[in-house]
Structure formats: C-alpha cells, structure tokens
Amino acid sequence: MIEAPAQPPVRSPGTGVRVERVTKAFxxxxxTVRALDGVSLRAEPGEIVTVVGPSGCGKTTLLELICGLSRxxxxxxxxxxxxxxxxxDLLLPWLSAVDNAALALRVRGLPRERARAHAAPWLERxxxxxxxxxxPAQLSGGMRQRVSFLRSLLAGKPVLALDEPFAALDxxxxxxxxxxxxxxxxxxxxxxVLVTHDVEEAVLLGDRVVVMxxxxxxxxxxxxxxxxxxxxxxxxxVLALREAVLEALGVQG
Length: 253
Prior knowledge:
By secondary structure, the chain is α/β, with parallel strands linked by helices. It folds into two domains: 17-81 and 157-249, P-loop containing nucleotide triphosphate hydrolases (Rossmann fold), CATH 3.40.50.300; 92-156, no CATH class. Helices cover 34% and strands 25% of the residues. The protein is built from seven helices and nine strands. It has a six-stranded mixed β-sheet with strand order 5-6-7-3-8-9, with helices on both faces. Strands 2-1-4 form a three-stranded antiparallel β-sheet. Strand 6 (159-163), helix 5 (171-187) and strand 7 form a beta-alpha-beta unit. Helix 2 crosses helix 3 (112-125), helix 2 (97-107) runs parallel beside helix 4 (141-154) and helix 6 (199-205) crosses helix 7. The longest helix has 17 residues, at 171-187. The model is unreliable at 1-13 (pLDDT under 50).
C-alpha cells in the first residue's frame, strides 16, 4: 500500500524571489511595446507578495519571467524553482479531479497509480472529498480553482506564481476562496507572488503589496502589511491599506 507523503516535497527555500531593474519589451505589428520598465521587487522565502496594477501593466509578464518562461531584456531575475498557476484553471476536461491534480506528479515521473495515491488525500484536505472522480464540468468554479491550485502545489516547487487565480469567480465564491487560500498557505507555506486587480484581495492575502503603474509597468509604491491573520475586510488596518493602494493607483476609494 502506498502512503501519501506528509506534504508535497519542496526543496529547502533559499533565494525566494529577487527581481532587479527588469525591463521587457515585445515586438507586435512592427512596433516595439515596452511591458516592464525597471521593475524591482523581492519576496523572502515563505513570504506572500501581492502585485496590483491596471490591465496591461505587465503583471503576467512579470510572473512568466519569475517562472523562467521568458527572459528579461535587461536586469536580473533570481528565484527558487517556481510553479505557475494561470488565471484559467486549464483542467483537462477528460480527466477526473484526482487525475488533473496528479498531473504535476506524473510530470515528475511518478506512474499513474502512484500519482493518484499521492494526490487523493490532498483532495480531501482541500474540501474536495467525494469529488475525486468528478470531471471538471461537474465541479463548481471554486472547486476547479482548488484542483488547479493543488496541481501547482504538488509540483513541489518552493515558489508559487499565481496569476489572478480568482478573477473568474463570482464575488461570494471569490471571498470564500481568498479565505481558503490564506488558510492553505498558513498550513503549507510557500514563497508566493500573486498578481490581482482586486485591491482588497491584495491587502487581505499579502505580506507586502507592490503597486504598478500603467504600461510600461513600473513599481510606484511598495506597502508592508503588518497585520495579523486572519484579516477582516472591515478592520481599520485593512481599510487604511486599501485606501493607500488606491491612492498609489491614482484611484479615489
């Protein structure tokens, strides 16, 4: 009988994430578009850094650079091995929930049955007990995102790059998932860089909030979130930081 590990195997964290004066541009329709211009940020091992900014400011490009899917034109990116969770869950519709979650283990070389055996107990922990054999079309949006996050977690990387993980969810489900993610990361710490359009989400989840400008993306302000968890939306510290982030974005709250 194969027993699941106590936790997904993760290399001892060392670097976290270090982005220094990074620039990135793309050629499109014969023109050069600058996505990032001198962006610097850091995420210490085990820290959650949230990144907010307007559409098109290069947030997704930043995550791709962190994960090594793209190279900067200038500056440096140093980080521990990272797994990317894209905005869309990208679950394979013909696979069950447990097999979708186990894909990360299959990629790491585990045979199918062993990968299933390792992944199955995590579905229970993630509130998906009884849905192991359900196809993605049979799952709610929140359930699908849990499976997608579990797949990223089982990749065994010390850094998670989360790209608007709850953007497609309704407001109530999104609020529930924010609380769920905070709980999961408390019990299974990782270095996390999470990009979002939701200012409140950034303050509720982050140890530090990085505010970016419109394209080309620049860091206009970094705010430390020195608030205990769990955080309530209505507590004064959260409200004050929310207003500070909105001010940095040039938006009146």
